[in-house]
Amino acid sequence: MDMERDRGGKADVRMAEDEEEVVVDVDVVAGESGSGSGRDRLVFMWGYLPGASRQRAPLLSPVSVRLPPSPAAGFSWRDVCGGGCGFAMAISDTGKLITWGSTDDLGQSYITSGKHGEIPEPFPLPTEASLVRAAAGWAHCVAVTDHGKVYTWGWKECIPSGKVVGDSATSDVQEKDVYDGTNPFLGEQVRPRSQTSKVVGGSGSDGRGGGDDNAKRRRVSAGKQAAESSTSSEESLSALPCLVTLNIGVRIATVAAGGRHTLALSDVGQVWGWGYGGEGQLGLGSRIRMVSSPHPIPCIELSTYAKDRSSPLSRTGMHLEGHGFRVPGNYIKGIACGGRHSAVITDAGALLTFGWGLYGQCGQGSKDDELSPICVSSLLGVRIEGVAAGLWHTVCISADGNVHSFGGNQFGQLGTGVDRDEVLPKLLDASSLENIHAKGVSCGARHSAIITVEGQVFCWGWNKYGQLGLGDVADRNIPSEVKIDGCIAKNVACGWWHTLLLAEPT
User: How confident is the model at residue 239 (pLDDT cuts 50, 70, 90)?
Assistant: First the structure.
């Protein structure tokens, strides 16, 4: 659910190290994973990865990830990619996707992750090409090769099949939450519907109070889930890795995966999307329930400035609502997917959002859904360099190293020091960030993380499973530094309930 890498400025995007240069410059937001030698790089993990230890207990503090055994002699880490529900992903220096942390009782996520548990292992993809990017949603994954090809697998409803299914169902039926305190995955991982089932989906309860959340969110009943389980095997709901068909000549540079939707960014700055779009998270201007073939998303061409009357342009007397003023920039350089919303960054540093807005996660000053990309006008004049999105929140970092956040804040995931939702971007001014220059950002379901120019890592938000890496299970509503002695953070990537860190020894 995170935006990819940030080298602190403009960088020529290459499909792989020392490979052919592509057409345009694209900022790669969130870490320095592509630079330097990876031979001494380390990967640390913390949070809930049940298959990562025999006890299946949450990891409350950073733990070094074991390298795969031979025949992968000489193996080392290139990058970390987060992961989905109960599994982790990273990329080796040879361009292999490495997965671990899954267990055989976690259903769909177990299949999606390659059934790799305590020992990291290469995921079996139908290509020998080197991978440069990867991302995971609830239970689907997507990866990019050094030739700009895209592979995806997991939930069948997230995998392109060439179909477009009409407008989203409008039912807001309130049904009983699905939650099992002994298995956190049942709290949010809604199973794909059967062919005859009615679409109600979204995310379930996390089991922690939140009466207001329970009244707002759409749910799937325990009875319905049980019926689906009894009539369909997990395998029948899954798709093996397949090549995504794009227009001739389209080369993808990076990808992002949300709850049930995927965004892909081409080397010329064009965004493509597919999957579930019922809240507008595919930015196509309507509540298209399912887009099962990649569609270009018109981000800059049709975007308007936000409806926020406090924006700088509004204060100058320009009445912008309903008018199609062009946003700054010529192409898109960064993408991020949340649970049911999306965010993109233009080459000029403008931030655009679209999708579900119930918690203010689009940053438009309201809680309305945004069906098309719309500029976050309150950030105009601030050059945004990186963005990440969680289940209900969004965090972005600026060129000057500041951190802004907005959206749902039930567990302190915005880092503002309070637990109040924010419908407009809020600048983080915690004392812990004084003189700190953020250069990379990532979001889990309800927690957030940044890395700094100085090589530090900070986490905040929900911590029930130790996903903040602070040695306890207490939530934090301000950024807190995760101490890893003798290491410099290079990239951070959050999964749903865990965090991965790429680091180098000092």
Answer: confident
